[in-house]
Amino acid sequence: MQKQPNIVLIFSDQHRADALGCAGSAFVQTPNLDRLAAEGVRFDRAYTPWPVCTPARASMWTGVYPSTHKIIDNVYGIDNAFASVGEVKTTVFDQLKAGGYKTAHFGKWHLGEAQPPFFDVWEESFNSRCGHWIDGKLDGVYRPTVQTDASIQFLEAEASAGNNQPFVMVQSYYPPHDPFTAPARFYEPYRHRGVPFAGYYAAVSALDHEIGRILDTLDRTRLRRDTLVIYYSDHGETFLYRAEGEHKFVCHEESIRVPMIASWPGTAPAGAVRSQIVGLQDLAPTMLAAAGLQTEGPCHGASLLPMIKGAFVPDWRQGHYVQNITHISAIAQRAWVQDGWKLIVSNTGAHELYNLNADPEEELNIFDVPRPDPGFDRYKHYEAQTETIDALRTSALALAEQIEDSEGVALLSAPMH
What we know:
Blueprint: E1 6-13, H1 31-39, E2 41-47, H2 53-62, H3 66-69, H4 92-98, E3 102-108, E4 121-126, H5 143-161, E5 167-176, H6 198-220, E6 227-233, H7 253-256, E7 257-258, E8 260-263, E9 272-279, H8 283-290, H9 305-308, E10 319-325, E11 332-338, E12 341-346, E13 352-355, H10 386-402, H11 406-413
Parallel strand pairs: 1-5, 1-6, 2-9, 3-4, 3-5
Antiparallel strand pairs: 2-7, 2-8, 6-8, 10-11, 11-12, 12-13
């Protein structure tokens, strides 16, 4: 039997998909994530199923949409969201632990205040709302550095133990989530250079530095070749541009698209870029497939392992489905992304349609064009988009029915035109 690989998941909170050098950014400095992408596979169209922390994280670890696991808001003051408010009780860590893995977690959890029973190691871990500076001083003790120190000690201990037990390690960083702050030395590429939100991008570069330390440790301890490493984020960041969402909570690309990179030297081809649509719901089945274990219970995701290994995957999904409740007005929404288009359906009737090829910034809503515009007539020259809307709605409704999202089915079945 082939040895089960180690699995290292490194993820951050609110890292935009475009805030990576390897994703084409002209100014963001991420040399270590760029190196990870050069050595592995970058997924260019990775999405969250729900653009806020706790629902997205519950989907990561169960493989199902929030409408199924029922954890649809951030949780505070409870020990274990899966055991209390969640309706899917078995996580990927339960299955990996039962399959012989040692399980370790470092950093932000945001699924409860207590150590879950499926983690053997629980160090520098917390639910949420901890400051980025442990001592409360700017340029003081940076929490991500302390977390990284702890995970490096774990990796070194595992390498020296020599017991051949595989491990799964989660390193979960809170930055670049607001408040935007980072060690002073990481501001230099951004501050006074015309870059807005310098603290955000400084935090991205600071995390990149910490990730480099983890990658260097895997190399130094000779664990790297036997380890699948995946980097990603739970959702993106809007910089308060969208009125209903503050930093996220909306279905626009800057909120729902996330970075995702997988590296497994000797197994994953180097420098590959995958354009297929993937989501955080694919992480749990990917981890189980890498471990040689079967998925138990309901699963809306699919294993990314064939794509990580370079295989052609026929009949892969053609679109991505997003569930959301906006932050300001609690508007229930469903969104569908496919073939360069996005449809956002809201329970208020204020629906949106964007041509992502012509308008990737999503600044021109053409759902109801041509429409009246007294005194300006700025929207009368656009062609009606009825056929496009109907095609997108049909695809979204099929997925909603497949995953038994009753609220989504109701939203997508209601009259729109």
